[in-house]
Amino acid sequence: MNFIATYNTDIGIKKNTNQDSLAIRIIDSPLGKVAFAIVCDGMGGLSKGELASKEVIMAFTDWFDNVFATEISQGLFSVSNLHNRWNEIILEQNKRLGRYGDENGIMLGTTVSAMLMINEEYYIVHVGDSRIYELSDVCKQLTNDQSFVAREIAMGRMTPEQAKNDPRRSILLQCVGASNVVEPDFLKGSLKKDAVYILCSDGFRHQISDEEVMERLSPEAADSEKMLKCGCIYLTELVKKRRETDNITVSAIRTL
Question: Which residues of the chain are modeled with pLDDT < 70?
């Protein structure tokens, strides 16, 4: 399976720094093309959220460029190794950022949503409320938000409409760096051909609907890298026009 990929990230209309970070990798391997994407949405005073998100991005890209690349070239890739290593990275970064925060008298942290596409399967690790979607004939959310409002909706104490405007919508149940204990979600599924997979920070999705995302980033609408990029930019500008105050980041990978 082949891939095309692009992204767009924007500081937004209010914040002084962009605390979102992202990375995309596409490589050749003995198992064919492999794609990896990650989005992290940092939080913390001044530029500390930016530091948190970048540190986690660097840890994951170092794993992909070195550990994973070696394993795949030597035929040593396994789901159990992937699960264990991703969990180690999350726990290591949680301790590292937590220790940095304690030493400097601050609190900082980041969400993590990462996706590996290999051998017609996808694997996801997820902490926080950034999201991963699969766009085919429908818009399907693959990750579950680990947030206060998501829990309230699940418990029947809040409707999705109420959650959109609730001032507590940014409160996370856990994040990397600011939680004593982090328990990542691990997901697995089959890749669809001619589908688009998007990873985004919460600033990207607050002000637009699934239908608007499909209009610009569905497989039919985004049939080339140029159209995929145009869709990401258009939706980002639409979110800004609707006065979203957060940083805005979206990564998109289309399967071919």
Answer: 45-47
